[in-house]
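Reply to dn_fold:

You asked what the input looked like. This is it:
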Amino acid sequence: AGNESRVASFIEAWFRREGFRVEVQRAAPARPNVIAWLGEAGPTLLLEGHTDVVTEGDPAEWSHPPFAADLADGRIYGRGAADMKGGLAAAMLAAAAFKRAGLTPPGRLMVGALADEEGAMLGVRQFCGTPIGRQVGAAIICEPEQNELCLEQRGVVWARVRIRGRMAHGAMPEAGVNPIWPIGTLLREVPALQRRLRRSAKRSRYLHPPTVTPTVLQAPIRGVPQANVIPAGSELILDVRLTPGIDGDGVHQEIERLCRRVEAAHPGIKVEWEPLGALRLPTKVAREEPLVRALAFAVKQVTGRAPRYGGVPGSTDGTILLTELGIPIVTCGPGNRLIPHQVDEYVEIRELADAARIYAVAAWKFLEG
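and this is what came back:
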């Protein structure tokens, strides 16, 4: 992540060769969005994917080079194969199938290759604020979900909690205020916070209940840790996952109360917190939505099987599309949902082909109304 220019240039050139109209948007330096479409009037369906990937880690741990796109055993291996170059490629080919067959979609079919989904979601936020973005009426998010129709997804708050004490020599703890002891108090409070969030959430058929997970612990906040130094501050990051029925203000209030309890238990310390990035709310769409019906029809036509429904445990660009534009979104794409961000990431070629066909059939069905 951090520089999607090369892949964006490839996608732009590919769509121009295929005869699409193309718009390139600058989400941030070296982080462009590429938007391509067929058709000019009628309802607009977006097939959405992101061009960034997470780090590959240590390449020596991979059985296949992480950026070689090796083909083996009916799979493509590499970082981003499932998350989500595979789904994006399937969307591109689904849209191109209309052009190659000489078909004009009964509306506008759009593909959005957006930057920075793995970070602050700058790409989709930029897209939602543009004239072309505001014309979208529904979106398929092509993330790896084994071609299930995911009708719900969890939201997220990342809370950075900072505890400030007073630096001192480790041999004279009475001369300082240790900001590490309060971390233990905070961690003991986390299960109770999780229980409160679960009580306020609506029961979901497709999602795990809300979770509160400590993911980062650091002391000191700045500088190098030393065995004989009580640090001036400590920091903890909580990954708070939300399900439908929980509002962002309520979560913020719960975290604030948690911080005040920790502060009250440790005289002399100061506890502050801030959200990392904007709130990402959970999303939900009904089975009766025309987009869901179109996808269900397409899955049956392509695979011969009834569609499987599910939910997304994390958040996607679809979170922003729904909250900013108020449009229905369904997440459906090729790839094992457990494999993203892991060593030896892969996507099944059979799932890629099925996804491209599902997108094409669903697009026609949805746009014809």
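The longest helix spans residues 81-100.
Hope that clears it up.
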